[in-house]
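I'm stuck. Please check this protein.
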Amino acid sequence: MVTRADIGVIGGSGFYSLLDDAEEIELATPYGPPSDVVTVGRIGSRSVAFIPRHGRDHRFPPHRIPYRANLWALRSLGVRQVLAPSAVGSLRAEYGPGAIVIPDQLVDRTSGRAQTYYDIDGAVHVSFADPYCPTGRSTAVATARAGGWETVDGGTLVVIEGPRFSTRAESQWFAGNGWSIVGMTGFPEALLARELALCYTSVSLVTDHDAGVEAGQGVTHDEVLEFFAQNVTRMRTLVSEAVQSLPEDRTCPCGSALDGIKLPFELP
């Protein structure tokens, strides 16, 4: 059995069959338990840890996910690179359902979420100008294109608090700012990964056009889940192939995000 991993996947329940030789591990963190037990196993020659973002029974809504515990648990297992598949709405008419967007920017429109590990014993300021790992992004883009996906390289993910969807006016405002896709879980996940010097890559599946993009009643929860379920097998293949294509040695800036910074505690 694999008890350590160098790659983490944070995704939905449809990803449980992603791993071979899988073992479930219960972990405690200074921030409470993660969303669920962590499943550790292999994809090809790579050791991988998987956490179901919302819990296997989907008990955590987006604003209640224990983001800090999830990322801390992954790092404590040895993870240094994270792939984060998720469902998003499109803010652009040309990005329809079924497109894969690999964003390179992020806008935070959440409120009230614990979004830092460094909230006691002194301030720690990490660079977040470019939220995503450049190596992970290029790997995900190449893998998606090789798999025949309609693939968008770059764009801005705006993360809303949820669990409600956007109003039509909000959606039109987001689109008017030039943002590309909208979701509920990409923040603070990306920032917490940076605060732990992890590589983090968002792999976003467009399930619908957001409310202000096209005329109609707007998206429903059931429609999003149904579309994602229809594509989960293909998404699982995409993530599996991306995992195997990630470099074993990191040469990106993510690993040095904390260099020269005095931390108030030791990282796992």
Remarks:
- The longest strand covers residues 199-209.
- Residues 103 and 154 are 4 Å apart (CA to CA).
